[in-house]
């Protein structure tokens, strides 16, 4: 949930659980999903939203790393001339500056210099060690 400008508008979102995931061939907005799932959580968290009305909505494809929903950053385990920065879903925009700098440092300096983001490396997929994040929408 975040405020959008100063006009009293807010943006929110909630990914459906797997059993409610819509078909990928239909991008129609399910307005009932807001009423049944999003609105109750909003009203519980912020009681003044009990009277909120949905003004607009969109639906689209959401690309992400299905292993643990987090980005993958660093050298490929088999190809030493291939560096990866992928799988970030919606939070990639927030992490892009740090990831870009980290990849540049890895290529130029041979390793992370500013921030050690090795935990986002490809190794965790090979070792089946997910990096769990519970606050991703």
UniProtKB/TrEMBL annotation:
Residues 27-106 form the FAD dependent oxidoreductase domain. GO terms for molecular function: oxidoreductase activity. InterPro entries: FAD-dep_OxRdtase, FAD/NAD-bd_sf. Signal peptide: none annotated. One of its GO terms (cellular component) is mitochondrion. Required for the assembly of the mitochondrial membrane respiratory chain NADH dehydrogenase (Complex I). Involved in mid-late stages of complex I assembly. PANTHER family: FAD-DEPENDENT OXIDOREDUCTASE DOMAIN-CONTAINING PROTEIN 1, SARCOSINE DEHYDROGENASE-RELATED. This is FAD-dependent oxidoreductase domain-containing protein 1.
């Amino acid at each position: 949930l975040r405020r959008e400008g100063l006009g009293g508008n807010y943006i929110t979102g909630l990914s459906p659980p797997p059993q409610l995931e819509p078909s990928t061939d239909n991008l129609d907005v399910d307005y009932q999903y807001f009423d049944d799932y999003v609105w109750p959580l909003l009203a519980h968290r912020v009681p003044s939203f009990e009277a909120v009305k949905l003004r607009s909505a969109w639906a689209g494809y959401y690309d992400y790393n299905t292993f643990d929903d987090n980005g993958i950053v660093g050298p490929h385990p088999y190809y030493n001339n291939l560096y990866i920065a992928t799988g970030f879903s919606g939070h990639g925009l927030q992490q892009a500056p740090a990831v870009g700098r980290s990849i540049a440092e890895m290529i130029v300096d041979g390793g992370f210099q500013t921030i050690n983001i090795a935990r986002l490396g490809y190794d965790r997929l090979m070792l089946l060690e997910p990096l769990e994040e519970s606050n991703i929408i």
